[in-house]
Each structure stands twice: as structure tokens, then as C-alpha cells.
Design brief:
Strand content: 15-25%
Number of helices: 29
CATH superfamily of one domain: Glycerol-3-phosphate (1)-acyltransferase
Shape: globular
CATH topology of one domain: Glycerol-3-phosphate (1)-acyltransferase
Distance between the termini: 72 Å
Amino acid sequence: MPTRQTVLSYLEDYARRGSSIVFAQPRGLRTIRCSYKRLLSEARRFARELEARNIRQGERVLLCGDNSLEWVTTFWGCCLRGAVVVPLDKGSSPEFLVSVARQTEPKVMLADRDVPAAEHLRIPVLRLEGLSQQIARHDSTPYAVEGIDEETVVEIIYTSGTTSAPKGVVLTHRNLLANLLPLESEIEKYIKWEWFFHPIRFLNLVPLSHVFGQFMGLFVPQLLGGEVHFQKSFNPSKIVRTIKRNRISVIVVVPRVFDALREWVERDYAARGQAEHLHKRLSAMEGKNFLRQWWTFRRLHRRFGWKFWAFVSGGAKLDEQTESFWRRLGFAVLQGYGMTETAALISVNHPFKMSHGSIGKLMPSYEVKLDEGGEIIVRGASVSPGYWTAEGGVESPADGWLHTGDIGQMDASGNLFFKGRQKDVIVTASGLNIYPEDLEAALNAQPEVRGSCVIAVESRRGSEPLAVIIPRDRSASVEAAIERANAQLAEHQKIRRWFIWTEPDFPRTATHKVLKREIAAKINLEEEREKEKANRGTLSSDPSKSTSVAAIALASEIARISGGAPTQLSSSDRLEDLQIDSLGRVELLSALEDRYQIALDEEAVSASTTIGDVEKLVRGEIREQCIARYPYPKWTRWQVIRLLRIVLFYTIILPITRGMSRMRVEGRLHLKNLAEPVLFVANHVTAGDHALILGGLPAHLRHRLVIAMEGELLRNWIDPPAKTSLFKRLRWLAQYVLVNVFFHVFPLPKESGFRESFAYAGECIDRGESLLVFPEGVRAPRGQMQMGTFKSGVGILVKELNVPVVPVKLDGLYELKRRRQYFAARGMVRVIFGEQVTFELDTKPSEIAHELQKRVAQLG
């Protein structure tokens, strides 16, 4: 087993790996990457920042924000300095922040811009956003580490984020290493094969404020020299797109995201009328080998990308039906079991020696026993020394044994099986135990059930289970599902009471565990309201008004987008009546997807879509239709096509353009020292505007320019309506091919499909390619003598790309077009390039669009 005294020894590996990428994350539409060497330098600078602030070893630093490169910099910088990290969920309430601050007395807080910290805490606050610039003045040479050993406290992780009495778990270098060293030793047995798959990329969707997120984000991937990608969104379609685009090998998730991805696959098959076919093939794959499964579902594997092969689950017990679903599809599923108090792991599945349904074999650093009630009790080097007290001390367990509060079973091979939380076990009047997980597994296996949880309720017969069910749609027969589930359960387990949950998902913690207390409270409140209504003999006066939590969330999002105050919505209200334009619909769908972890198709929502339809879409009662997608071909980037494009430009496009326009180019000096990539925005007059701009650009910008074109037109060319004649189909296909060969274009739709288009624009910028966009959206009609209004979409694009913008004006074309004149006099047509402009991140998209329109208009 490797010998390490502290986790700081892993930073020596960072130095050795140099320029290899260690972390990547999206920023707006772009992806920011950080090397091992750069991260080490940033951590050293942050350690010196703490030193400059006179923060000493053992003093606390609050860290509250999304997973990010800056979060990791802060963590390692604190470790180098010996300061204690206190990571908190970004969604922690101000009251909880104040309570933790009183306990830990931090010297400084690192937080995202939108964390309400500064107004609640009387301590200095550094923003994670832009941290590199704030600490750039410090030296990045090796930092002298003194007085840090295995008993030094690394962090205090708070496990109670919803109460006013937070409980902080103290973790030392010794605790973390006790779990890491056995894994490192096991990895060394297989590391020689890693180069076949190098680099192994991990997509970590678990918060770094939790020990499991740290384990799979900061430590384990680096043992393989791997890359870790972060992403805020839990939208399944975005996750799958990220996996494929970034060639992810392993995704680290909590069980709820597993379920969301499973629903995405099932909805995708259902949209193509193949739901029954999917389930038949899944049933046939039970017990088949991996290669047979992979080949059977190769088309799905292609959707995820050929390099992707494994899921790692933690934070809660994975539903056995969901685990079986992904295994039968040909993916590896690894899950472990642990607690914050055990520095992440107690048991873990071996990737090549898995026991299905179990939570793995025990880590070698533990003594484990089960008491008479089946509770898992552990002792070992990984177990925390105790809980942080308000007096600044550590409260240790009396006997050295940690009582987990979890019920488990052990088989003869040493595999551990999770049965449930001790506090959730329902004890019937006859003294029999009911484990909610058993009932939930039976319910979740039914096709009518989208999700379920089981809570205890009191009745005349004592405690009994209440099944809270989210049906797949309102037409689903819940009674039939419960009858089939009961057939799989023992007599004392049978479900006799149930409640239909009307929202798309249950309330959850930051790691997506179901908050059963909140569910029970809401059910009690609903029952009290029903009793009150029954006593008064009254009903709602307006049944068309939506009162669900989903409708309240929808009203809040619509108010934010439209700029108005939240109002009660009617199910018959149309989005266009609520001042929601095409880009507003994009923002609305994205917000709903992130809130409920579902994938919504833009094509399913139009201006005439009603609030009732949106609610049904969120609940899965309306299936998205299979429609033709906008084309984003890869062949346009092939080297042979690039070379052909250059030849065609100089032999055909440039001579014709200059011969017809006899154009004059102004503002070339503004392009001389231009840092690439950039976004060019121009007025739009004729079909040849892009050729004029290309002719005016220097060669190094000209040959790496991607041009936005009307998305609906491109899609119609490659996938015309059903009744289109063969001749017209062939002509349009030829137009599509020629446009892509002569000019590197991408679709920018008018009505829907913006998200994919904007994402493609971000990929172009990441490749070092510049973009040309015409913000008016349409060419000026004949007779129009001035620019039209710039659409707000260009403001969103500029804001999310965060690159310099160069305004371009095409002058003289309006008059030429009015006269129907195809050949211009010398100097009549001018291409004018303005000075580059950048915008602050908090500038509104509408303000950006207005400013760019003004700058283009003022040119010349």
C-alpha cells in the first residue's frame, strides 16, 4: 500500500503531470479547462492570499458555491496553509449560514456571486468568480508547508442543512487517507492498462460540498491522471450531450439523476413509438454478457459516445430496478456506501467483481458489525474524530464505534446489502418491520409509476405505510400498479393507503435525497384543507386557476423572464399573452428542465402553447414528437473540405465579390492586433453579405470564420416537407452541400432550437473559430434604407460567449438593392470594421443588443 502522511502529497502528482488537463467546466456557452500545473500554481497563490490576510493554521474558511475550478483552488490553498475548510451547500439558508458561522468563527468566506452571504455575515467575503485575478499578484512558487500531519483537520462538513442546530463532522488527513490508500493500492494493479483509454474523463454532478463529491472530484480521478468535468445542469439531454461531446468515460451521480436519465431514455423510445420494443429487449438481456448487451443497444451507446462505459452512484441507495435497467443496456454501474462521518466510504463495489444489488464489500480500514436490529456499526481510521462544538472543540463518540443509523445485511461473501434508514423503518402493531425501500422498489417497477416514496402514518391499527406516488400521467391506473406491487410483497408489507403527488418531483436535498418530512407535512396540510372544505361545503370558485407547486414555480419563472410580478395563472393562458417571446421560451424551458431534471423539446412549445400544456409537458403527459433536427454536420470541418473551401474562395468567391461590388474596406487597423476568437455582428442587406465581410477580413480570420445562417432554411433544404417533388429535393440538397462547402455555416433558428445553436456557437469559440452573426435575423426588404432592430438573442449570445465583439457595417447596399443594381460603382459599397467591445457579465442581453445596434449604425 502506498505511504502518504497527508493528502498534500497528491499535489506532488499534480506537479509531475504538468500541462495535462485536470478540470473542465462550462462558462456560459464555452468550456474552460485547467491543467494540473496551473491548478497547483493557483492553490499556492491562494495559500499566500490567506497568509497575507493573517489566517493561521486551524482557523476556518467558509466555502459556499457551485462546483468550479475556483472551489478546488480554494480547497487546496487552505490545505497548503493549514486552514480548515468549511464547505456549505450553495442553497443553504441565511439562518443556517449564520448558525455555522457562529460555531466555526471563520476568518473569511469564499462564495459565488448569487449566494446571500455578505449581508448576513460580518466577515470578509471573496467572490469565487474571478478569483484568479484577485490572487494573481501572489507568487506561484512552491509553498512551505509546516506543522501539518495526519491528525491535522482538513475540513468540517455540516450534515444538517435544514435545521437551526447544524452538526459539523470533523475530518482529518488521516480520515481521508484511510479510504484513499486502499483504493490507490487497488488501482495500481490495473494502471498499466489505463493508457489504452487515457485520459479517463469523469463528469462529476455531485456537490463538492459533500464528501462523496470531493472523493470522486478531487481525489480518485487524479489517481488515474484523469480529467474531471463539472456541470451545473442536471437536465438529462444536456448531460448526454456533455458526455458525448467531451468523450466522458465515467459519470458520478446521485440516484435521482440516474432515474432522470432512465426517464430520458424511455421517453426517447416512446416518442418514436418503440417503448414496448425497448422493454422486450431489456427483458431479453437479463443474464447476457456485456458484449451482447452493448451490441443490442449500440445505437444508444452511440448517443452517449463510444468512450462512455460506467456510472458511479453515491449519496443514497440506488433503486435496484434502475441499476438493472442500466446494466442490461451494457453499462457498468458501481455504487458504494458511506457517510460523511466515515470520509465517504464504508463499502464499495469492485468494477470487475461486482455483486448485483449489493453496496459492495467493506473497505479494509474498518471493523464492522451488525447489532441485533441489523444496524451497521463501524470503527476504523476513516471514522471522524467527532463533531465540532460551539466552543471550538471536538465531541467524540464514547466507545469509538460509529452507529450509522442504517440497517444492513451481510452475505457469506462479505457483500453488504442496504435495507434502509433505521428511523424510516415502519414497525406495525404486530411488531413486524417494514422497510420502505422494499415497497418503493416494488412500486417503481410498475410502468404506471414515475416515482414513489413510502412514509409512516398512524392509524387505528398502529403505524402503517403510506405510498406517495408520482404517476407517469394522469390516465395511469395507480390502483392496478399497487395491486401488482402488492402481489410481490408479504402480507404485512401490503400497501393499503396511497397519495397522488401532483408535482413532477419530490422535494430533495442538495444530494437529491427525498425529504420525507416535507412530504409528510404537505400531505397533512392537504388533508387539513380538505377537511376544512368539507366542513364548509365549499369548492374553488375558479377551477381553471392552477394552484400546484409546479404552477407556482411556472408563474415565478414567467414573471422573472417577462419582468413583471408573479400572478396566478390560468391553464388557458397562452405564452404569447404573457409577453414570452421565442428566446423567453428558451429561458423558461431551461429553467424548468433544471428544476425538475427533465428534458423538454423546444419544438413542443410555441407562442400559442398554454400554461396547461406546459404543466402537462413537465409532468410527462404530453410526449414530444419526433421532428427533423437542425443540421450540424461534422464533415464541414474535415481538413479536405477546409482546403477546398480556401481554394474555392480565392478562385471563385473573392473575384466575383470584388468584381461586382468594387468594395472599399475601412477599419482594418481595428483587426490588426485582434485577439482570437471574436464575434462579428453586422447589418444584413443582401444574400452576399457574408462574402463581402470575408473579402474584407485578413486571411488568419477569414479561414477560421463560422457564419450563422437561417436555421429553418437549412433544415428545409436537407429535410423538406413530405410532398416536395424529387427535383426540388435534389436541388435543395445540392444547395445545402454547396453552401457548406463554400462557406462554413451553422443554423441559427428564428423560432425554436436556439439552445442547440448557441451550444454549437460555444463549441466553435472553444475551437478557436470566430463567428459572424446578423442580429436583425432577416435581410432588409427592398426599399428599406436603414438597419432593422437587433434581436435580443445576440445579447444572450454575447453574454454567454464572453468574447470580444467587433461591429461591422455594410454601407451602400441599401441603395444598390433599391435600384435592383447588381454591379456597383467604385467606392459605393464599403465594409467598415469598428473597434472591438466587451461587456460586463451582469449586462442585460437587451442592453447589449441595443448598444451593438448603436455602434454598427454609427460606423462610417
